[in-house]
From TrEMBL:
<dbReference type="InterPro" id="IPR039535">
    <property type="entry name" value="ASST-like"/>
</dbReference>
<keyword id="KW-1133">Transmembrane helix</keyword>
<protein>
    <submittedName>
        <fullName>ASST-domain-containing protein</fullName>
    </submittedName>
</protein>
<feature type="region of interest" description="Disordered">
    <location>
        <begin position="537"/>
        <end position="563"/>
    </location>
</feature>
<dbReference type="InterPro" id="IPR053143">
    <property type="entry name" value="Arylsulfate_ST"/>
</dbReference>
<keyword id="KW-0472">Membrane</keyword>
<keyword id="KW-0732">Signal</keyword>
<feature type="transmembrane region" description="Helical">
    <location>
        <begin position="587"/>
        <end position="611"/>
    </location>
</feature>
<feature type="signal peptide">
    <location>
        <begin position="1"/>
        <end position="17"/>
    </location>
</feature>
<dbReference type="Pfam" id="PF14269">
    <property type="entry name" value="Arylsulfotran_2"/>
</dbReference>
<keyword id="KW-0812">Transmembrane</keyword>
Length: 639
């Protein structure tokens, strides 16, 4: 008892000291640290179905592996609309930053995701970063390298176009240019020009490149003044392109933050067809915008074009309006003069400014999903502007470049993960605790739990339960070795089966509170659970069984009720064990045994001990770097 209290005390202290409440952690995937969301819904009924796609990062430059560096923290994540984790891809790339993570459109009619893996921290510039497309199994379908002389895969955009054959990315180039545009024809300066590339997603070959040199004069920039002293390399970041999209006619729309302008660029000859905003707008417009992000074509016909973008109305140095907003603009391009009018405006719900980054997405049901970037702040709005939901990371230390919402089907190629441990103080009262998860799987409704007497033995179903959260816990009577689980969808279809896992046992049973002389031997599951056997691998069998079972139900109703009671108690116990688990979460170390006094009564009452196999470090060191990020923003590869 004293030992127990001492351990508990130690645990509490540790938990407080390491406070990593803003992260989720899991028994089945202890390495993953997924951020929690704080979420508020105002009208859940009107919210569009779909999953959230975010890619939290701590610092925008590739993170130097230091003491603060922790694996599996930053990277791509999918959550459901309750903030429940669906997929953590953070362990794929050793904490490399991921940008523009989203579901890719219409490739072979199946779900895909796409994102930019940022260039490496130190690889002598060899690893320039990559545009990735993964299939619904989370296997790489396309890894698009930088094949031309550009120094890196620019972080702003990886816009996989419909069908997936080509993708758009932003490009930045350092050039030594004459300053005639500024009325100084005898002088030269380094200037960072900007444009875009359309790349073949299979080979990475650049099919089309456009650059601002010769099209956007230097004096169009709001960041360069006539008298500025010529710059050394890399040079003045005078356009700062940050988004590009393509329409059915084959023309491109390009957003340049530092000219406050959106350009339509001919796919035929590269000329600028029109400019919206900035110093040389071709439109008569009833609104202003600045420092915009994420321009997209929404729809168009021969006379009108609707576009969307995030008007962050500010940057780190200046601010134009007091609130950032998502704008939907209708351009009447056959009128003379051409006109632009606001047809949708969605202000940032907290009234604040998004100084860097952000995204706007029109959802299939007409709702608007906006990523305000910092701290993963995001909101969903009804078409008429009502705020339906707002959410942000519980952690203040991370942001996401963009946030999206998509329908998605995930069928991971890796099997479900299962962990199991046996607990008990005497041979007759042993229980096996399962934890199960399946990283990336959507549509799992229930879990079936199996055990067999040995590796080659016949699998016996020892229980089933509804999937709750990313990781589901289940407690079964007996010491069950050689266990496995099955993921089942709402129609009863088996989506996946885990590998066979051997149940973890205490290294020393007696120290763990076991009263017997010798260590217990595993139960034969068919003796414990024989009557309930259902092997879903064989559907016919299962159906026959079901009929039998139905008959059984009539015969021994009472028995089943007792069993149900026992399972309810087991679930209650599971909850108290889960709480205890939370308590010891912060403890590092090898094997930790904790006695948990269970007072729920009934069959499983008594003493249970707790056993911890893996080390679970706390992730608390990465400081908020937003200030740093803002300073860094001017660099061409960033912001
Ligand atoms: C084009 O779209 C605009 C705006 O939705 C609409 O008013 C106009 O009638 C459409 N024109 C054609 C030719 O469909
Ligand atoms: C568990 O399995 C039984 C028998 O197949 C079924 O009737 C029940 O609905 C299942 N429960 C859950 C939570 O899946
Ligand atoms: C509407 C508005 O005030 N827009 C301003 C946004 O900020 C830029 C400078 O950052 C101004 O030039 C715009 O007038």
């Amino acid at each position: 008892m004293i030992l127990f209290l001492a351990l508990l005390l130690f645990c509490f202290r540790s938990a407080v000291a390491d406070s990593d409440d803003d992260f989720m952690s899991f028994v089945t995937l202890p390495q993953i640290r997924a951020l929690k969301f704080n979420i508020a819904y105002y009208d859940r009924d009107l919210v569009s179905p779909g999953y959230w796609f975010v890619a939290p990062y701590g610092v925008i430059d590739p993170e130097v592996p230091t003491k603060q560096w922790k694996p599996c923290q930053v990277g791509p994540y999918i959550y459901d609309a309750d903030g429940t984790l669906i997929w953590a891809g953070s362990c794929l790339f050793d904490n490399r930053n991921i940008f523009d993570f989203k579901a890719a459109p219409n490739i072979d009619g199946q779900s895909h995701v796409s994102f930019i893996l940022q260039h490496a921290y130190n690889d002598n510039g060899n690893d320039k970063g990559t545009g990735y497309v993964l299939d619904q199994h989370f296997d790489t379908e396309m890894a698009v390298p930088v094949t031309n002389d550009l120094s890196a895969f620019n972080m702003h955009e990886f816009n996989v176009l419909d069908g997936g054959k080509t993708a758009l990315a932003c490009s930045y180039r350092n050039k030594y240019l004459n300053l005639e545009d500024l009325g100084r024809p005898d002088e030269y300066s380094w200037v960072v020009t900007g444009g875009f590339v359309e790349i073949d997603t299979t080979t990475g070959e650049v099919l089309h490149e456009w650059d601002s040199e010769g099209y956007i004069p230097i004096d169009e920039s709001v960041k360069v003044s006539e008298w500025m002293t010529p710059s050394s390399e890399p040079g003045w970041d005078y356009v700062h392109v940050n988004a590009v999209d393509k329409n059915a006619a084959g023309d491109y729309i390009l957003s340049a933050r530092f000219t406050n302008t959106i350009y339509l660029i001919s796919g035929q000859d590269g000329r600028i067809i029109w400019r919206l905003g900035g110093k040389k707008s071709d439109f008569v417009q009833d609104f202003t915008f600045s420092k915009q992000h994420h321009v997209r074509f929404v729809e168009s016909n021969s006379t009108h074009t609707t576009i969307s973008f995030l008007n962050n109305a500010s940057d780190e140095a200046e601010q134009g309006e007091s609130t950032s907003s998502a704008l939907f603009i209708q351009l009447h391009t056959s009128a003379s003069p051409m006109t632009a009018k606001v047809i949708g405006r969605y202000d940032r719900p907290d009234g604040d400014l998004t100084r860097l980054r952000g995204s706007v997405q029109k959802l299939p049901n007409g709702n608007v999903f906006v990523g305000w970037s910092q701290r993963g702040y995001q909101s969903e709005h009804s078409p008429d502007g009502k705020v339906l939901m707002q959410a942000s990371f519980a952690s203040t230390r991370f942001s996401t470049y963009r946030s999206y919402k998509f329908d998605f089907t995930g069928r991971p190629s890796s099997p479900p993960d299962v962990a199991s441990s046996v607990y008990g103080t005497d041979g007759s009262g042993l229980t096996t605790v399962f934890h199960v998860s399946w990283n990336g799987a959507t549509d799992v409704a229930t879990w079936n739990f199996y055990a067999r007497p040995n590796r080659d033995g016949f699998p016996v179903r020892v229980g089933n339960t509804t999937k709750v959260d990313f990781e589901t816990m289940y407690i079964a009577d007996g010491y069950l070795d050689w266990v496995s689980v099955e993921a089942v969808d709402k129609d009863g279809t088996v989506l996946g089966t885990s590998e066979i896992h051997r149940t973890d046992t205490p290294r020393n049973w007696q120290l763990a509170g076991f009263q017997g002389e010798v260590k217990p031997t595993p139960n034969d599951p068919s003796l414990l659970y024989g009557e309930k056997t259902i092997v879903d691998e064989d559907i016919e069998d299962a159906e026959e069984e079901k009929e039998e079972e139905d008959d059984d139900d009539d015969d021994d109703d009472d028995d089943d009720d007792d069993d149900d009671e026992a399972y309810i108690q087991a679930q209650e116990l599971a909850e108290s064990v889960a709480k205890a688990w939370d308590v010891i979460r912060g403890v590092g170390g090898l094997l930790i045994f904790v006695l948990v006094i269970c007072s729920t009564g009934g069959l499983l009452a008594g003493m249970y001990w707790f056993y911890r196999r893996r080390r679970m470090p706390a992730y608390h060191e990465v400081a908020s770097e937003e200030g740093h990020v803002e300073v860094e923003e001017e660099s061409p590869l960033r912001g």
